[in-house]
Amino acid sequence: MKRILFVCLGNICRSPAAEGVLRAKARDRGMSLYIESAGTGAWHAGDPPDARMIKAAGRRGYDLSHQRARKVTDADFFEFDYLLAMDLSNQVDLLEVAPPNRECDIRLFLDFADSETRETPDPYYGGDQGFEHVLDLIELGAAGFLDHLEDESE
Ligand code: 4NP
Fold first, then answer.
1. Residue nearest atom 6 of ligand 1, based on CA coordinates
2. How far is Cα 81 from Cα 73, in angstroms, rounded to an integer?
3. How far apart are CA 58 and CA 119, in angstroms?
4. Which value, in Å, is the radius of gyration of the alpha carbons in the chain?
5. In the chain, is it the N or the C terminus that has fewer CB atoms within a 10 Å radius of its CB?
6. Quick one: fold of 2-152?
7. Residue 15's closest CA among 114, 115, 103, 23?
């Protein structure tokens, strides 16, 4: 079973949403994946996702309420097949601390999406519309990433 770790900065907005959306979309397609999320920072470790994201995702049928934030660990670079960064700075931060013998692919999540946009913008300091935009991008990314995994396994 493929193991996927989504990574953003705080692990309370973008990556927990990506975790919940991919889990639901994979289940819809009958695909078995192991999915987690983490942050490059530890400020929110142990916290549930941002209440605004729980609410916005809930309206689309994704329940994020049981997820808890954690920081990326060294072991993640060996235990996951893909570390999917939500923006370029997340990807750069991961590449900077990645052990040289790491066994995972460190990719930008939206590079799998049918979208010109490569980065999932941080909605933390913005309004409700930012959370909807993030969810739109994540749904596109999830579809593209699952297509990629299906192509890879053929
Ligand atoms: P996220 O958003 O990286 O999508 O979880 C953020 C949440 C909190 C902070 C930064 C980004 N923060 O600085 O507390």
1. 10
2. 14
3. 23
4. 14
5. C
6. Rossmann fold (3.40.50)
7. 23
* DSSP conformation class of 29: T
| Rounded distance from Cα 45 to ligand 1 centre (Å) | 11
Q: Which residues are catalytic?
A: 8, 14, 122
| Ligand 1 atom having least distance to the Cα of 8 | 3
Pocket of ligand 1 contains residue 122 by CB under 6 Å: yes
Q: What is the pLDDT of residues 100-142, one digit of tens each?
A: 999 999 999 999 998 899 999 999 999 999 999 999 999 999 9
Task: Determine the distance separating the centroid of ligand 1 and the alpha carbon of 76, expressed in angstroms.
Answer: 20
Q: Which residues of the chain carry a pLDDT beneath 50?
A: none
Considering only CA atoms, which of 82, 85, 80 is closest in space to residue 122? 85
Domain locations along the chain: 2-152
Beta strands in the chain (DSSP E): 2-8, 33-39, 82-85, 105-108
Would you say 87 and 8 are in contact if contact means Cβ atoms under 8 Å apart?
yes
Residue nearest to atom 10 of ligand 1 (CA): 10
**Are 70 and 45 spatial neighbours (Cβ–Cβ below 8 Å)?**
yes
